[in-house]
Write a structure and sequence with these properties.
Layout: E1 3-7, E2 10-12, E3 18-25, E4 33-39, E5 45-52, E6 58-60, E7 68-73, E8 78-83, E9 92-99, E10 112-113, E11 117-121
Parallel strand pairs: 2-11
Antiparallel strand pairs: 1-3, 3-8, 4-5, 4-9, 5-6, 7-8, 9-10, 9-11
């Protein structure tokens, strides 16, 4: 059974950092692109960053490229999203997703989704 599980979310003060993890089970991430998305209350789902687990190439949305870093650990079948200089507007439910194909941040490209994890940035 294919499963993606996010962890590492929570409450952080503005300017702080969090590292989200996306652990895969039921399949190996090889040849998949893994993406991170988020959805704030009342808004649509927004693509943030993605990584090719084959060659490590990455792609970022302009809104986060200077603050967020996506990385992978093939041995652990896990992808990470390091988030720095967090702002209140980063508050959202964060999702990871996998697609058997190329890099991109369009929802319809992705075949498997995690259940999401809450990130709240507040003082």
């Amino acid at each position: 059974q294919v499963q993606l599980v996010e962890s590492g979310g929570g409450l952080v003060q503005p300017g702080g950092s969090l590292r989200l993890s996306c652990a895969a089970s039921g399949f190996t991430m090889d040849y998949y692109a893994i993406g991170w998305f988020r959805q704030a209350p009342g808004k649509g789902r927004e693509g943030l960053a993605c990584i090719s687990t084959l060659d490590g190439n990455t792609y970022y949305a302009d809104t986060v490229k200077d603050r967020f870093t996506i990385s992978r650990d093939g041995a652990k079948n896990t992808v990470y999203l390091q988030m720095n200089a967090l702002k209140p507007e980063d508050t959202a439910v964060y999702y990871c997703a996998a697609n058997y194909g190329g890099l991109g941040l369009l929802e319809h490209m992705y075949d498997y989704w995690g259940q999401g994890i809450q990130v709240t940035v507040s003082s």
